[in-house]
Amino acid sequence: MSRKDTQDIIGGVALAALGVFAAVYAQRYEFGDVQRMGAGYFPVVLGIILTVLGILIALPAFFRRGDAIRGEWKNLFFVIASVVVFALTLKLLGLILATMVSVVVSLIPEQETRLKGSLLVAAGISLLTYLIFSLGLGMVLPVWPWSP
């Protein structure tokens, strides 16, 4: 056992740093107010929330013991590979199939999930991706291989 919970310390500090970066970077945009939000309002508020959450995660970790950090290099490789697969297949396969393929690739190192389970997870994430990005945000992405 290590002296401190380094995993939560690193995670909390990284989250807080991301929040500070977002809040500081968004200062270049008009802030506005609650009634008329400017372009910088949401990133600043989100950055502040992330910073507070990061601090709330990191501070208690200084006062408790934790296990040593183990690197899961195989998982890291397959997650990065899934992002590359998504980028390479989006135009060719469309949003839904590219998302399914990339999710299946990211689940390869997971030993307990069988093919059926991986396909169900991939289908669910693909549906959410379609609902959020195509319908909700109105992004113009090819949904299927035959989509323009």
Q: Ends: how far apart?
A: 56 Å
What class do helices, strands and sheet pairing give?
mainly alpha
What count of helical segments does DSSP give? 5
User: What is the general shape?
Assistant: flat
Order of helices and strands: HHHHH
Give the oligomeric state: single chain
Query: Mind describing the biggest β-sheet?
Result: none
Strand portion:
under 5%
Explain the overall architecture:
This protein has 5 helices and no strands. Helix 1 packs antiparallel against helix 2, helix 3 runs antiparallel to helix 4 (95-106) and helix 4 crosses helix 5. It has helices spanning 6-25, 41-61, 73-93, 95-106, 115-136. It has 148 residues and is mostly helical.
Task: Provide tags for this entry.
mainly alpha; single chain; 148 residues; 5 helices
Topology:
Elements lengths: L5 H20 L15 H21 L11 H21 L1 H12 L8 H22 L12
Helix pairs in contact: 1-2, 3-4, 4-5
Quick recap:
With 148 residues, the chain is an all-alpha fold.
